[in-house]
Specification:
Elements (H helix, E strand, L loop, with lengths): L3 E4 L5 H12 L3 E6 L2 H11 L5 E5 L5 H9 L10 E4 L15 H29 L2 E6 L12 H21 L4 E8 L6 H5 L4 H6 L9 H13 L8 E4 L15
Parallel strand pairs: 1-2, 1-4, 2-3, 4-5, 5-6, 6-7
Bound molecules: NADPH dihydro-nicotinamide-adenine-dinucleotide phosphate and 2-hydroxyethylsulfonic acid.
2-hydroxyethylsulfonic acid (8X3) binds next to loops.
Protein name: SDR family NAD(P)-dependent oxidoreductase
Organism: Ravibacter arvi
Family: Belongs to the short-chain dehydrogenases/reductases (SDR) family.
Amino acid sequence: MKKIALITGATSGIGLATARRLAQVGIDLILCGRRIDRLKELEQELGAIVKVKTLHFDVRAEAEVTAALQSLEGDWQNVTILVNNAGNAHGLSSIEEGNTADWDAMIDGNVKGLLYVSRAILPGMVERKTGHVVNISSIAGKETYRNGAVYCASKAAVEAISQGMRLDLTEHGVKVTNIAPGAVETEFSLVRFKGDAERAGKVYQGFEPLRPEDIADAVCYAVSAPAHVTIADMTILAGAQSQATTIFRNS
Ligand code: NDP
Ligand code: 8X3
């Protein structure tokens, strides 16, 4: 059966690189995000290699998620790989000064959004007795850093959800892979710092950060493993990184 991967957050960074990587190995794609112009460009680019469908919705809006995913027809309903990647950090501040709108965006997007998408896709995988979920967590889900309590909490939730999904889904033939990247240069810091490009750029100064393609390679490796192998958990740090915020910078 031809594989179909549904990737959330395909308009940028890790999701975009994953879309390109999975297209290279012939996997048809359902690409999701809020920015329609980028989805259309990607459809043009990757549609030359594999079949591509695009869906635009905000993962935080349950009704939007459900309506978009229920609109899939025919073979597009048979999603074999779900890459739960959409998410971001919003703000970086000490807990007593935190912006509650930022907290909502992180909890609603990184946690509830992942759950809404999964809830819509998983029954089909269970019914077909085959499937693979890849959750993009973070090193921030494995350790907490100062000023990042809520983002770290949202990613710790992803870690727990990955474990829980694996417990619930293994008997149904559905694999679950949790990938926890370290510092990857994407639009992540630009979003975290609300468009402040100078501040975002400093995050990646003085060392070579991960590239989104490094994480896309890991996704591709996990979903290409033979049936008797589950890649359960991968933590991928930059070469100069030993913990989330412990990075050896040469300048
Ligand atoms: P980007 O900002 O480059 O990409 C984020 C993607 O998520 C975009 O495609 C965006 O699409 C989508 N997205 C964000 N919020 C929503 C929403 N509410 N509804 C729908 N789509 C949404 O960042 P990254 O590629 O770095 O981030 C991807 C994932 O990787 C995130 O879960 C992040 O937490 C995680 N991660 C990132 C690391 C890093 O250092 N960069 C390290 C560890 C984990 P659009 O705006 O079009 O909706
Ligand atoms: C993104 C990586 O360490 O900046 O999840 O939180 S970190």
